[in-house]
Each structure stands twice: as structure tokens, then as C-alpha cells.
Amino acid sequence: MASKERGPNLIRKYVWVLETICRAKEKGITFNELNEKWMEDDISGGVDLPKRTFNNWRVVISDIFNIDIECNPSEYRYYIRQKAEFSRNGLRSWLYNTISVSNALLNSQKIKDRILLEYVPSGQEHLYTIIEAMKENRVLSITYYSYSKDEEYSFDVQPYCVKLFRQRWYLVALSTYTYYKEKGPRLYALDRIKSLQTTEETFEMPEDWSAEDYFYGCFGIIAEQSVKMETVKLKVKASQANYIRDLKMHESQKETERNDEYSIFEYYLRPQYDFIQELLWHGEGMEVLEPLTLREQIIGKIEAMLNNYKSTV
Q1: Which residues contact residue 2 at a Cβ distance below 8 angstroms, ignoring those fewer than 6 apart?
Q2: CB contact at 8 A, 270 and 224
Q3: Which PANTHER family match (predicted)?
Q4: Counting C-beta atoms within 10 Å of the first and last residue's C-beta, which end of the chain has fewer, N or C?
């Protein structure tokens, strides 16, 4: 029966297997133990999991998620070889987490009114077209709305990469027009794209261009290369440090000091607009110690905010 399945239902079963084995932690899980849990779950439909099917799924799971389910030959226990894949920032881990959450939601229809989700702008409707164009290195013709100029513009771009940041998708692309092309790739928010279509024109992707390198040292989606990398030191109140510790603000984060009152966190990045907005969002629980230029920027913005409120009192 399982071999005839396809699509979302089968993907759900792959994820179930991954999660169940992952929860077994270091000791792993035998096939009999796995099958017992399978039979206890509604996903089984009351039918045992054939070992041959399970082994076939292991191969497919490795292809889809790049996560290998291996067997300890001495105890015949199955385990996940590279659990770090679950927490790393990348396409496969994002795919796994997305499908995992989808599974949980699909299995929770009885309490759907008690599960509240964040709104994601409709710009994602263009995502499929962009990704297909990226695969074939095809030029895209887009009509884009500019917030600053309150106008729409139509132009052609070479799609380099896409990035998700705070429920919004962004496209990094190079304009085909000489003036803008010389300035390098630019960023476009998908929710501001009014229309988009793939053209017959193709382009050569630069061999020395890397999406990871392009955003190296950046926080968020602004990748202004003219802003130099710096060591940033933050003093965070102990009550707020736990949140920073559990959910890193940036991959370069290091905790260099910790006591009952505060912690010192260090970062090595480009302190650009998105990062400054993040610091302001944390309010009085966070203080910039270094560099002095960043500290002064934060002070200036706080003073400007205070003046705005004073003018209305």
C-alpha cells in the first residue's frame, strides 16, 4: 500500500519517521520500537510499517533532506547521523522545519481555532516563477512598486538568489540596464512586485558570485558591502539575556561575560540598518558598548524618538 502513495501524504510519513528517530536521542531506536510508535499514531492507518518500505524511505529521506538514518550494527538501533542539520540555517533544514510544522497543523484540525499564525504577504506567489527562472538562468521582466517614489517601474533583471527574512521573501537580482548593472545586484521585495514573467533571454551566472558570500556579515537583507565588518559588544540585562542566548541574533554571537545582572555578547558583522532596528527593538534591556560609532547612532535615534514624543505633549 505504501509504495502506491505519493505527494504530501508520503512526505508527512517521511517527516514522522525523522522526528520519531530524532526524539530517541543518542541511544537510537530499534525497528520494532519504531513500528510500535507507528501503530500508536493515526498516521499508520492501523497498518504495520514494512521494514522494506522503511529502508526505501531512508534512501528518499537522504535525497530530500540530506539527513541520513543509520543503523548501529551491534544493537540494530537507528539514529540520525547529522542532527546538526536540523538547526543549521539552510534550504534543507528550512524545508524540513516547514514540512514538520505543516504536519502538526494538518493533524490538529480539531483545535485549528486555537492555533494562530503570522501573516505572510502575498509576494510569495511569485516565488515559484523566480526559482524556475534561476534554475534556467533566464531573465525576468518585472513591474515593481517603489515606496519612496510612490511609482511603478518596469525593467528586466537577472535573478541571482532569494532570501526569506521576517515573513517576507526578497530577490537579489542584477539589472540588465548598463547604468544599474554597473552598480551590482540589488534587492527587491517580492510583495512589491506587481507583475512578473520569464523571458526567453538567458544569462551567465558569474562563477565567483555566492549568495552566502554576498550576505556574509549581514543581519537581515541589507548587504551594503561598503559598511565594514566590526566587532559589536552588547550589554544585555540578565532577564533578557536568556532569550538572546536561546535564539541567537546572528551566527557570530559569542557570550563573553555572564553574571546575575547582565551578560556581554559579541558579534562580528556589518552594523547596518536592519541590525540597528533590531537593537532598538530590544529597548532598555540592551546597551551598545562598542563600537563608539554605533553607540552614537543608537543614542541619536533614541533622542530623535524622545523629541517626537515631547513635541506632542
Answers
A1: 10, 13, 49, 50, 53
A2: yes
A3: PTHR34580, SLL5097 PROTEIN
A4: C
Q: Under a CB-based contact definition with an 8 Å cutoff, are residues 129 and 197 in contact? A: yes
79-115 residue pLDDT tens: 987 655 555 556 566 666 666 676 666 666 677 777 7
189 exposed, middle or buried (CB, 10 Å; 0-12, 13-18, 19+)?
A: middle
Q: Cell 525593467 belongs to which residue?
A: 155
Please give, one letter per residue, the 3-state secondary structure of the chain: CHHHCCCHHHHHHHHHHHHHHHHCHHHCEEHHHHHHHHHHCHHHCCCCCCHHHHHHHHHHHHHHHCCCEEEECCCCEEEECCHHHHCCCCHHHHHHHHHHHHHHHHCCHHHHHHCCCCCCCHHHHHHHHHHHHHHHCEEEEEEEEECCCCEEEEEEEEEEEEEEECCEEEEEEEECCHHHHCCCCEEEEHHHEEEEEEEEEECCCCCCCCHHHHCCCCCCCCCCCCCCCEEEEEEEEHHHHHHHHHCCCCCCCEEEEECCCEEEEEEEECCCHHHHHHHHHCHHHEEEEECHHHHHHHHHHHHHHHHHHHCCC
Q: What is the pTM of this model?
A: 0.71
Encoded amino acid at 95, one letter = L
Asked if 86 and 98 count as a contact pair (C-beta separation under 8 A), the reply is no
194-252 residue pLDDT tens: 999 999 999 999 999 999 999 999 999 998 888 999 999 999 999 999 999 988 999 99
> 163: how many CB neighbours lie within 10 A of its CB?
17
What one-letter code names the amino acid at 56? Answer: N
CATH dotted code for 230-310: 3.30.70
